[in-house]
Amino acid sequence: MIKYLTKLREETAKFEEFRLQQIPREQNMMADQLAKLASSNQFDGGRRITLLSAAKPMVGLEEEEKKEIEDNKEAGKIKLRSARFVLIDGNLYKRGFSSPLLKCLNPDKAKYVLREVHEGSCGNHSGAHSLARKVLRQGYYWPTMVKDAFSLVQKCSPCQRHANYQHNPAAYMKTLESPCPFDMWGMDIVGKLPRATGQKEYLIVAVDYFTKWVEAEPLAKIGEKEVMKFIWQNIICRFGDAKENWVHELPGVLWAYSTTPRKSTQETSFNLVYETEAVLPAEIGEETWRIRSYDSQRNSELRREDLDLIEEKREAARRRVCIYKSKMAKAYDSKVRPRKFEVGDLVLRKTENTGPIGKLDAKWDGPYIIAEVIGPGTYRLKKGDGKILPRT
User: Fold this and answer.
1) Do the bridges between strand 102-104 and strand 140-141 make them parallel or antiparallel, or are there none, so unpaired?
2) Which has the closest alpha carbon to 247: 206, 188, 209, 191?
3) Chain-centre distance of CA 241, in angstroms?
4) pTM score, whole prediction
5) Could you tell me which residue ranges the Integrase catalytic domain spans (predicted)?
6) Which of 24, 123, 231, 247 might form a disulfide with 119, Cβ 3.0–4.6 angstroms?
7) Strands in 95-198 per DSSP E
8) Which helix (H) or strand (E) holds 20?
9) Beta-bridge partners for 141
10) How far is residue 25's CA from residue 28's CA, in Å, rounded to a whole number?
C-alpha cells in the first residue's frame, strides 16, 4: 500500500485539481468483483510465516497470590472454572469424568509420576497417549499431561531406539529438468537379491531423465570398477522378478518398458529416442497397415525426415514433463513433515539391514553427530571419536 500511495501522489501532482470521492459498493460492482478476483489469485512468490508456540500452559501451575479481581466478567469465568476443583486437607483435586477426584500435581511431582509410570518398576515404555491415559486412570491431573507425556517419550532413549519408522518425507521435493535426451541420468543400486546364475545378487539401474530410457545390468558385487564399467560400456542388460531366473527375464521387461507410453511425457521412450514406434511381435503375426505399406527404398529417406522433426516432439515432451513434475512435487510436499538438523546435533540413524533382524531388535542406532549439512534432508554423520560414517 505504501508503493501504491507513493505512485498515487506522483500522478495527482500532475493535475491542477484533484478530488477523491467514495462510491458505494452497490454502484461499483464491476470494480468490486475485480478487486476480489485479484485477491483470490494464488501468489507463487515466497512469503514469511511467523510461527508462535506456547512455552508455558495458559493455566499456571504455581501458587500465586492475587488481588481481588475488579472485572465482574473475568471473575465470573474464574468462579465457573473453580467449581470443578475442591481443596481437601491442603491438596487440590479436580472433579473428573473418568474418576470422582483427580489429584492436581505441580511440575516436579508430575515429572516424577510420569517417569515412574513410564519407566519405573511397573513401567512398560508405552506411547505418549497411552501414558497420559494411564496416569489419568491412576487419579492424577495437571493441565499439560499429554504434552508432557510426548516430551518424555521423545527424550526416552529406549523408546527412540525402538520407535516406528517415519515414512513421511523430511524435506520438500527438488525436481530436476533435463534439457535434452541422455544429458542427465539417475542411477540406483538394488540388492541384495536372491542369488542367481553367476553369483549375481545386485542390480544397477540407470534411467534417462528426459526419455525415461532404462539401462540395467546384474552384478555379483558392487564396487567402483563395476559401476565405472557399467557407465562406460553403456550396456543394456536384464531385469525381472526376484526369483533365480530374473537375469534371463530382464530383456523382455526392458523392451516392454521402452515401448509403453509414459504418463509424464505421453510418449514411449523408444519414440523419443528413435522418432518412430517400435515394431511389436503382434504386428508381425497380424499385419498392420504400417507393415503392409513398408517400402524399403523410401525407408532411409523417411527416417532422415523423422530425425529432422524429432526436436519438436522432444520439446513438447519436455514441457509435459515439467508440468507432470510440478504436480508430483505438489502432491509430495503436501505429505512432508519437516525435520531439520544443525551441525553438532545428536541424532539416531535407521538400523541397516545387513543381517537377520529380530522383532525386538532396536530400529535405530546411535547417537551420532551431524558433521555436515549437505543439502535439504541430507547430512553427513560422524561418531563421537570424529570418524565419518560411510554412506552418509
Assistant:
1) parallel
2) 191
3) 28
4) 0.38
5) 177-346
6) 123
7) 102-104, 140-141, 185-190
8) none
9) 104
10) 5
Which SS3 state, helix, strand or coil, does residue 349 take? Answer: strand
Query: Within 156-208, where are the H helices?
Result: 157-161
Q: Report which residue type is found at 61.
A: L
Residue 300 grid cell: 532411409
Domains defined for the chain, CATH in brackets: 79-161 (1.10.340.70), 185-333 (3.30.420), 337-392 (2.30.30.140)
The Cα–Cα gap between 301 and 308 comes to 11
Task: Cell numbers for 146, please give them.
Answer: 499429554
Distance CA 266, CA 260 (A): 9
Higher pLDDT, 66 or 188: 188
Element (H, E) at 373: strand 364-375
DSSP assignments along 202-255, one per residue: EEEEEEETTT--EEEEEESS--HHHHHHHHHHT-------SSTTHHHHHHHHHH
Cβ count within 10 A of residue 246: 20
The grid coordinates listed for 15 are 493535475
In the chain, the amino acid numbered 323 is I
Mind listing the pLDDT tens digit for each residue in 43-94?
555 556 665 555 555 555 444 545 556 667 777 777 777 777 888 888 888 8
Looking at residue 315, the DSSP 8-state letter turns out to be H
DSSP three-state, residue 120: coil
Q: What is the total residue count of the chain?
A: 392
Instruction: Using alpha carbons only, give the angle 50, 56, 62 rounded to the nearest 5 degrees.
Output: 160
Read off the C-alpha cell for 349.
540413524
Q: What is the DSSP-derived secondary structure letter of residue 233?
A: H
